[in-house]
Structure formats: C-alpha cells, structure tokens
Design brief:
single chain; alpha+beta; 17 helices; Rossmann fold; iron-sulfur; 6-stranded antiparallel β-sheet; 7-stranded antiparallel β-sheet; Glutamine Phosphoribosylpyrophosphate, subunit 1, domain 1
Length: 478
C-alpha cells in the first residue's frame, strides 16, 4: 500500500506532528488538541490520537482515543465531548519505522509505578535495536513496533531513580540517539523536549492561562494562541502551575545543530516559522536562487502544488517571467488511495493533478517542483504539460539531488531507488522528458535557513551523527 502511493506522489513524507496543552484554569482541552492536530495534518495522515487527563483528578486516569485515518475520520464530536481533562497530548502519524497499524498509533499511554505517562513523538531514533534489546533483557514487553515506545520505557525506568519526570526525560535523552521532538504528559506536568541536533521542530505558545507545545507555529495560529518561542535544540521545557521551567543540560554548541532542511523545503506549512525563519521566505529564496543560477527563456513559471508554488513565485520575481497556475490538485488523495489497475484507463497522477490547458497552450513553461525522489511521477507531469500544448517544459527543482537515504524521520529510500544516484542531471532530464533540468545548489540551503545549523545528509552523505550500520528503517518488527 505504501509503495503504491509513490506512483501518485513521488514526494518525501514526514513522520509526524505533535501537540500538547496544559490549561491552568482547568478547562477541557480535547477539542483544542483536535484543531491543533487538524493544522498539523499535512505532517501525517495515517493515524492520529489524543490523550487527556485532569490535573486535579486522580493520578493515573488518562482518557485516550486514537485510530487510523485523518483527524476528521477518527474523532466524532461525541468522542471529544467525552474526553474530560485540562492537560493533554495529540499526535498525527506517517510511519517510517514500525508498520501502519492502530497499535502503532500515538499518543502512547503507559501506566507505571509513578503514575501515567502520555507521549507523542516526531522523528526516528538510530540506536533502536540496541535499546530495544537492552530493555527486553530486563523484562520489557513491547505492545508496539515503534521507537516511541522505547522512549516511553526509557523515561518510565529513569523516573524510578530520578526525583522528577523532567529529570527522567533528561536521563532518557542521554541514551536515545537520533531525531526526536517529544511532548510528554504526566499527571501534573506537560513536558516538551527536542533532540540536541534540533532535527524536528517544536514551539511553545500561550492562550490565556493555557500553555501549548506544537510541531509548527501554524497550529498555534489555528487555535488562537500567541507564539512564545521555539524549544531550543536539546532543551527540555516543563510546564506546571508555576509556569515554564527550562533544562538546557543536553544542549550542544549551535555549530553542531542539524535541523532537517526539508522542513523548510517541503514538510512544514508555508505559514509556519521554524526557529525564527519563515518557511514561506525560505521557499522564495530557493526559487530566486534557481532563477539566478539556472535561468532559461520562457513565457510562464508554474509550481507543482502545493510546495512548488512558493518557489515558483520566487523564480518569477527574480526572472521577471510571469507566474501562473498550471495545475489543479485534488487534495483528497490520502494514504489509503486505491491505485488504478494497470489495465484501467485512469491514471494515478491524473487523479491527483490536472493541467489547465488554457494556461499552458503554446507556451514555454518553467515547472518548479520541490524534489524528485524515485522519479516515478515527473515524466508523467511533464508529459501532461506537453499534451496540453506546452511548447517547451523546463524543470527546476528547489532542492539539490537526493543521493543518500535519511535515517532521521523521513522516508528517503535506499540509494538504489533514488533517481539521482549514479545518474547525471542530463540523464535524469532525458528520463523525465524535459527540455532542461536544474537543481538548487547546495550553498543556497544555508541562505534559506538564514545561517542556522542544518542537516544536508541526504544530499552529500555528511550526516550529523553516524548513521546505523544496518538500515533499520521501516522494519523494526523483524
Ligand atoms: S538526511 Fe535529509 S531528510 Fe533526513 S534529516 Fe537530514 S536533511 Fe532531513
């Protein structure tokens, strides 16, 4: 099922969105979490869930509901109404490690000697097999195949020795390696933590007397909260009735930070700010850079929706060539999309995208897309423009070519499946049937992130921390 999706959409997929809230006035938070998750739906569409608790109620009473599908498929108004509690966490998931099943949906809720933990995680650990073995040797029985359960266990175990749950999170962070943004709910506290490299985003918001943690700032806008600040890479924030407390003992020098640059290129919504940098502006910069370094004479610049659109605007601004709309997208093609049979006359790509013939007929078109992963759809999109009468199709990609896999929470596959691996740009251009092709230069990534430390491992193989010796992605249950 997952692989069929690539014939419709050859883009990367993010692993998850996380959300947490603590309302000090005691108001119920389930519906606010729902709307927060709704704003983060683009980060994962396979499953979602909410867990809530009452900070003045009995310790250990957590109400949770989760299931497969989009937020509006999983929750009914009655579900939300019945979830009473003023503290809670939520999650929306796309799986890159652990299969797509209801058991693997989050948040995870764990009962242990000190009470209950609710946890939601975005990212991928790279030392999962070692940690899993270590825990299994000492009697742990796993309910899921996801690395998030390992994090929950590590925190629960550490809590037995540590004076507070936030100290237990810090202790667990000494052992887990890789990419993680976490929201953790204990009976009386909400905790947010970001891995020391800052691969995945996490920010803090405030609405009245409620504090919020969210993967992207656009989720704060949606629920009418103000942005307070980002959680720093390596920082642990603890929200209690007394306010926010910060622990920076796991922070590393900022030169070592390695934010996933794909958050800016593709994953995050353009209305989000990550670590002070506007995603919209980053994409404009990428488009401008493509126009400066890879110009071509043409009549029209178009973006492959959605993430290609802003970069296309940047290209148009820099080149002076008009920006236009060439595609109409059907946004309802979800992860459970049934791919047409080979024998059928429907085309997977056409079901998702259609061309506006009037816009492109007789024109030389520059088409901007954010990436080419396997190359399973680009030829068809170029072909659609030609069939609609485009005289020339020049493809510009707002990221450098993918040459290596990702181990930190996105589904870039192994090298042999990447179209750019062992192929020149000219060869790829021929395969996709374009008149010309150019990719973003790697140097531009630093301009896009305004000099913040970024990860560029999938482009140049220089990973911020050693990748695992065996490729464990996606098959943890073995
Ligand atoms: S390897 Fe690429 S996709 Fe993975 S975290 Fe680094 S920049 Fe992001």
């Amino acid at each position: 099922m997952i692989h069929q999706q690539y014939e419709v959409d050859d883009h990367l997929h993010e692993e998850c969105g996380v959300f947490g809230i603590y309302d000090m006035d005691g108001n119920d938070v389930a519906s606010t979490i729902y709307y927060g998750l709704f704003a983060l739906q683009h980060r994962g569409q396979e499953s979602c869930g909410i867990a809530v608790s009452d900070t003045s109620g009995p310790k250990g009473l957590v109400l949770s509901h989760k299931g497969m599908g989009l937020c509006n498929e999983v929750f009914t108004p009655e579900d939300l109404e019945s979830m009473k509690g003023n503290i809670g966490v939520g999650h929306t998931r796309y799986s890159t490690a652990g299969s797509s099943t209801r058991e693997n949906a989050q948040p995870l809720v764990l009962n242990y000697i000190k009470g209950t933990l609710g946890l939601a995680h975005n990212g991928n650990l790279i030392n999962t097999p070692q940690l899993r073995q270590e825990l299994a040797r000492t009697g742990a029985i796993f309910q899921t195949t996801i690395d998030s359960e390992i994090i929950a266990y590590m925190i629960a175990r550490a809590r037995v020795e540590q004076p507070t749950v936030q100290a237990a999170v810090a202790e667990a962070m000494k052992k887990i390696k890789g990419a993680y943004s976490l929201v953790v709910m204990s009976p009386r506290k909400l905790i947010g933590a970001r891995d020391p490299y800052g691969f995945r985003p996490l920010c803090i918001g405030k609405r009245g007397n409620a504090y919020i943690l969210a993967s992207e700032s656009c989720a704060l806008d949606t629920i009418g909260a103000e942005f307070v600040r980002d959680v720093e890479p390596g920082e642990i924030v603890t929200i209690t009735q007394k306010g926010i407390e910060s622990n920076r003992s796991m922070c590393i020098p900022k030169e070592q930070h390695a934010r996933c640059i794909f958050e800016y290129i593709y994953f995050a919504r353009p209305d989000a700010y990550i670590d002070g940098v506007s995603v919209y502006e980053s994409r404009l910069i990428a488009g401008r850079s493509l126009a400066k370094h890879h110009p071509v004479n043409a009549d029209l610049v178009v973006g492959v929706p959605e993430s290609g659109n802003v970069a296309a605007m940047g290209y148009a601004m820099e080149s002076g060539i008009p920006y236009g709309m060439a595609f109409v997208k059907n946004s309802y093609v979800g992860r459970t999309f049934i791919k047409p049979k080979q024998s059928s006359r429907e085309s997977s790509v056409r079901i998702k995208l259609n061309v506006l013939t009037e816009a492109v007929k007789g024109k030389r078109v520059i088409m901007i897309d954010d990436s080419i992963v396997r190359g399973t759809t680009s030829d068809r999109i170029v072909g659609m423009l030609r069939e609609a009468g485009a005289k020339e199709v020049h493809v510009r990609i707002s990221s450098p070519p993918f040459l290596h896999p990702c181990y930190f929470g996105t589904d870039i596959p192994s090298e042999d499946q990447l179209i750019a691996h062992n192929r020149s740009v000219d060869e790829i251009c021929k395969i996709i049937g374009a008149d010309s092709l150019a990719y973003l230069d790697e140097e531009c990534l630093y301009e896009m992130s305004k000099g913040l430390g970024i990860c560029t491992g999938c482009f140049n193989g220089k990973y911020p921390l050693d990748p695992p010796t065996e490729d464990i992605r996606g098959d943890y249950q073995k």
